Fold this protein.
Amino acid sequence: MPSSDSFVPEGGGRRSAGDVLDDFQAALLEDDAEALYERAPCGYVSTTPDGTLIKVNQTFLAWTGYQRGDLIGRRSFAELLSAGGRIYHETHYAPMLRLRGKVQEIALDIVRADGSRLPVLANSVLERDEVGEPVVIRTAIFDATERRSYERELLEAKRRAEESEARSLVLTRTLQQTLIPPLPPEVPGLDVAAVYRAAGSGDEVGGDFYDVFERHTGDWVVAVGDVCGKGVNAAVVTSAARFAIRGAAVQHTDPAQMLAVVNRVLLGQETNRFCTVALMRLRQDCGRWTATISLGGHPLALLVRGQDGPVGFGRPGSLVGMLEEASFHGEDLVLQPGDVVVLHTDGVTEGRRGSEFYGEERLSRTVARCSSSASEMVSGILADVLEFQSDLPRDDVVVMAVRVPERL
């Protein structure tokens, strides 16, 4: 009688209990492997080298709605793809697989049995025999429905962002056109010119501005300003400052008093932005022009007279819209024929090339060689500032020139 740890199987031969247990575990593992293959969280597809389906798992069948008998030996993998997918399979997928032996994360659409589409990502490997001949293509299919939906949402968000950016660009240009006069008005008895250039590519609303307007006959006001910051919020302050200057000019004749009014207006705005302003009143009397200038935290104006080099004109004052107790000062100057007064924002002198600033000395040299007309003056200064910064200024630039002709 055989011992308890062995038995004689049918057909003869004695096997131990350990052998039987090994066979049992092997059978379990085989069953587990088959179950894992059939019910894996992804689809598995095997094809011949020409693409004919020879094996599919249950997951793939459940996703697509096909019966196994509809596919095995009857259809090719390419035939299950959408029209665009079949073209891509023929022109890219299959050639890459033959060349590299594998392809990864290829986005395709599989057409289900009911005609609907299943977005998938496919990873394939091409197995070869000992002599290098193709034997079988094994493909793992991953459901990409959620991913494709997410990608569509991203594309839609990108489209909306691009449309918003386009609308913003239109708004920017519209604001610039309303805030920056295209050309200064004609001032009888004076040669007046101005230029404006926004920072960078010029697409963003800048904070620099200028204005020229008439108070009474022979009585004009010239303003150049620079609002802290950029964008729509800066444009709001720019607009408020310009209208405040015009309103103050109705009530006051002294530019310092005008700046005091602008200061109160900006302090009342729901913003923490401030600005610098150079405000100059020009009045004609008996053929002679007198300029009165007041500076609110702004760079000095430059006066060019005869062969002398440019000199500063004006007294520094407080920033506008920053302090309740601001201090502004006026300075008078009787202009002579040929005199030129240049106003500018700090985008000129603070223009940078690496660690080097454009600076006041270079500005003075440029002003000295461009004094034949107001237009030549402003265009020459702007061209030199842009060349210094390789045509990409870091800050907005405004330059205005007022010239008294040689003969009135």
User: Anything to note?
Assistant: The first helix runs from residue 17 to 38. The first strand starts at residue 6 and ends at 7.
